Amino acid sequence: MNIVVPDDAARIVADSGLEPQLRELGTLRVHESGAYTEALLAERIAEADVALSFAASPFIRAVLEACPRLRHIAVFGIGVDNVDLDACRQRGITVTNTPGYSAATVAEKAIALALAVAHRMPMLDASVRRGGWPQEPVGQLHGATLGVVGTGPIGQRVIAVGRGLGMDAIAWTFNPSEERAQEYGARFVGLDELLARSDVVSLQLPLSAETEGLFGARELALMKPTAILVNVGRGAVVDEDALVAALQAGRIGGAGLDVFAIEPLPAAHPLTTLDSVVLSPHNAANTPQANRAGLELAIRNIRDWQQGTLRTSIV
After folding, report:
1. Which pick of 64, 104, 131, 195 has the fewest CB atoms within 10 Å?
2. Annotated catalytic, 251?
3. Is 142 annotated as catalytic?
4. Which residue is catalytic, options 197, 263, 292, 296?
5. Which of 120, 157, 234, 240 is the catalytic position?
6. Based on the number of CB atoms within 10 Å of its own CB, is 309 exposed (0-12), middle (13-18) or buried (19 or more)?
């Protein structure tokens, strides 16, 4: 079995110590750079039976058709919006992911972004470095209302961390239940109510037909003028033009963003000009602990698929 890693730019395989486990499953080839174009991805996985992907490489229909041996796409990560799932179903290609592997660190990042925006950390740091000593009041999360949108493993952990700071948590999901609300320690409410009541709105949604553009001008207008929007899910869940307009007009208090509609974020993007925004390069899940846990799960998915014992898959 040929296993190809087309896009290990972060050297997750090389630095994990788990490469021997992959080599036990078949012939392994690792490319330590991104495969962001269709042509390059197709070239790299042309002879692959399994593609273990670490980035948003474009597994579109044309790529899949150019790779007739491909039978399993093992996604390291939660989102599979870069994979044409319909084409995979038609071609008999299994798609797996690694849900929950990074819940702890992504939840930390979500709350860290909220804290950085509330306490104006980047601006204060820059001012002190220039010799300033600003004394104007900053925000506080203790006693604030945290609105958690998406209650998968990451959202559940965001609720726990927020409550640990003394925040009151409310939540919204497509499929709420009273039993899960009690388990998570948050009350499920309607999305409009969540937006109107929350001091911090934290998004942990994957990208899908249901979630793309879910947060537009209407939703942002429902938020408090002092509220903070945090996004650690997918950039395209938010209408960035509407977000920029709301921030520029002071209709919301600020934003902490780890994900963007276009990545890397263009240098001249309007978000880079706003002092009320804290930006991060989609690295919330990139810790040694999470990387190892995610790779272990991806290797298990490949092994179980190879042995015919795979229990869960996207396709």
Report:
1. 131
2. no
3. no
4. 263
5. 234
6. exposed
